[in-house]
Amino acid sequence: IIIMKNASELDFIHKVTLENGLTILTETIDSVRSLSVGIWVKSGSRHETDQMAGVTHFLEHMLFKGTKNRTSFEIAQSMESVGGFLNVFTSTEYTCYFARCLDTELDRALDVLSDMVLNSTFPKEEIEKEKKVVIEEMKMYRDSPDDYVFEEFSGQLFRHHPLGRPIIGFENTVNAFTQQHLLDYVADRYTPENIIVTVAGNANPERVETLVRNYFETKKGVTNGLVDVEPNTYQPSRKELTKKIEQTHYIIGKRGLSSNDPNKYKLLLMNTILGSGMSSRLHQNIREKYGYCYSTFSFNHSYRDTGMYGVYVGTDKEYVAHVKELVLEEFKKMREEIVPAIELEEAKSQLKGKMLLAQESTSNRMMRLAKSQLFFNRYVTLDELVEKIDSVTAEDIKDFSSGFFTEEDLSETILLPED
User: Fold this and answer.
1) How far, in Å, are 96, 142, 249 from residue 377 at the CA level?
2) Cα 396 to Cα 245: distance, rounded to the nearest angstrom
3) Residues contacting 245, CB < 8 A, separation 6+
4) What residues are labeled active site?
5) What digits encode the pLDDT tens for the residues 197-228?
6) Taking each helix axis from N to C terminus, what angle separates 179-189 and 124-143, rounded to the nearest 10 degrees?
7) To pair with 391 at 20 to 30 A between CA atoms, which of 43, 44, 88, 301?
8) Contacts (Cβ under 8 Å, ≥6 apart) of 262
C-alpha cells in the first residue's frame, strides 16, 4: 500500500494497484458516518467512432437493467432500502458508477456496483425500450435552450471531432445499437487497467482492498480501441439558430486549456474575476449596471489535451449587439489592464474557499481522488493547489490574457426566438 499524506491534510490517501492493473484509492474520513464509492472507467464519448456515437451513455442506462444476480428493481432497491442511492454519469473522457450510503453499507455498495459492471446481461427487450427513453432524453435537452446552445457551441469549437459530438449520441446511432454492440464494448473497455475504484468516507482501506480484490482480482482483459483522437485545427466561426422561445441565448468563446497546461491556474483566476458569481465583472456590468440579462457567467472546461472557454448570456434579442460589446470590452480590460490587488486576492480566496468547502462532501472527495488519478496519475494535494493559485500574479494574468483574448479567435453561437 502506498500512503501519501500532505502536512496540511489530516486524512490519509491509500493507493493500491492490483496485479491485473486495476487501481484502488481510499480516503479515510473518520469524522463522518457515510461514505461514497465510485467505479470509474477510463472511456468516454470521445473514444467512440462516428457509427457508435452515444454508446457509452447508452451503456450507462443499460447497466441498471439487470445482471446475472439482480433484476433492475433489485438494483434500484439495493441502496434505497438502506437510505443510500446509486447514480452514474458519462463524460467525454470517463464514466462513473457511484453510490453514497452509511458507512455500515460498504460491502453492499461495492457488491451492487461491481455486479453492475461485471455481470450486466443487456436483455434485448430492455435495449429496445431504453432506446425510446434515451431519444426522449435527447428531446428534453433540445427543448432546453441553454442545453441546446451549449451543445451547438461545443460542436462549433470541435467540428468533425468526437469532442464536438453530443455525449448522448444521435437518434440514428442509438437506434442501431444491438446487444452484441454492448457486449463488445464492455469486453474492450471495461478491463482492469481501465478501471479505478475510489472510496471516500469512514472506511478502512484494508477492508476496501479485500472487497475489491474479491470482485475484480480475477478479471482479465486488455483494453482495445481506446484512442484520444488529436484535436483538429480550430477555426473560429459564428452560428445563428432559431427556436420557439422567448429569450435569446448567446455564447462567445474559444478553445481553452488542457488539464495539464501550466497556464491553467491563470485561466482559473481570470475566469473567476470575469464571470464566477454575482460579484464578477460580467454580472456586475451586464446585469447590475444595464439590466440586460437575468443570467450571465463565464465557463471553463479542460480535457486531457485541449479545453473550452466562453461567456454565456441569456438576454433579449434587441440587446445582443450591446451585450457582445460589453463582453468584448471586459476581454479588452483583461488584456490591457492590471487586475487590482484586492480583486485578485478576493478571486484567490473564492477559488480556495470553494475547494475547501467541497471537502465537506464525501462524494466530492471520492470524485477528486479519481480525477487526480485520471488526469495526473497521482494524488494532487490541496496544499499544492493553493500554492499554485497563490503564485499567480496580476502581471501573469495580464500577460496570459493578452494572448488568450484575441478577438479573431473567438467563436459565437446565438439562439434566437423565431419570428
Assistant:
1) 17, 36, 38
2) 42
3) 145, 415, 417, 418
4) 60
5) 999 999 999 999 999 999 999 888 777 767 77
6) 80
7) 301
8) none
